[in-house]
Write a structure and sequence with these properties.
Layout lengths: L1 E6 L4 E8 L6 E4 L6 E6 L4 H10 L1 H10 L11 E4 L2 E7 L6 E3 L2 E4 L6 H27 L7 E4 L6 E3 L5 E4 L7 H13 L8 H10 L3 H11 L9
Helix pairs in contact: 3-4, 4-6
């Protein structure tokens, strides 16, 4: 069950979700959308939930002020590609192409977002499939189906059947970060957890994983700032 409350002036909208598994109040905010969610125990009093949110108002406003602002896509603007800011220019032909730090996109401005999204998805599929096969071979394990999506809560996933999923927005991150995510998910083919054994496995095929993981923690929100 989900309810909506407001606190403060100007008001902050908060979605209150009741959970049978919750034992305490917990607040979460989406870097991508700015949505504020409060999870409470199933039978918690709504007034108590409102009071808890009010007590956290300063913290909420502080984090909302740090949120990365959405950026529209237009010719002349920039967008991240392989971890670097690239200018978007109007191109010719039928497809988007990358050349010397510039992304050339054909067509009119109203089709630009769709063109760039399609290009990023294509590059993501090529790279993430290749990287998944490469790291899976190191573990002598086969992979299943690879899907590319625009996910908000995770950069990748691995099912018990060996199917892998990746966010195409990873193409905005540095190439080594893309490779790390592939190695990370492939290791779940053996360890479906984040235990010490799992991280030792990651280190065995991707020794510098800590630096790439840290980059995502610090900069991941930037990959969601573009409004496709």
């Amino acid at each position: 069950m989900t309810e909506q409350i407001e606190i403060g002036d100007p008001p902050i909208q908060i979605m209150v979700k009741r959970s049978t598994r919750a034992r305490r109040y917990s607040l979460r905010m989406s870097d991508a959308t700015g949505a504020v969610n409060l999870t409470v125990p199933r039978f918690a009093n709504l007034e108590a939930a409102i009071e808890f949110a009010r007590m956290q108002e300063g913290w909420i406003r502080k984090h909302l002020s740090k949120r990365v602002k959405p950026q529209t896509l237009n010719f002349g603007n920039t967008i991240l590609f392989d971890g670097a800011e690239c200018e978007i220019r109007q191109g010719t032909g039928r497809s988007v192409r990358y050349e010397d730090g510039i992304l050339y996109a054909p067509g009119q401005a109203d089709k630009l977002a769709a063109k760039l999204r399609g290009y990023y998805k294509t590059i993501a599929r090529e790279r993430m499939v290749a990287a998944s096969v490469y790291y899976a071979d190191k573990l002598a394990r086969p992979i299943g189906r690879v899907t590319i999506r625009d996910t908000r809560s995770r950069w990748g996933s691995c099912t018990s059947e060996g199917n892998l999923m990746y966010s195409w927005r990873l193409i905005m991150a540095p190439r080594q970060v893309q490779a790390y995510v592939a190695a990370h998910e492939v290791c779940h083919l053996i360890e479906m957890n984040h235990s010490q054994a799992y991280w030792a496995l990651v280190a065995s095929i991707f020794p510098e994983y800590k630096e790439r993981r840290q980059w995502l923690k610090q900069n991941g929100a930037l990959l969601h700032r573009y409004a496709f």
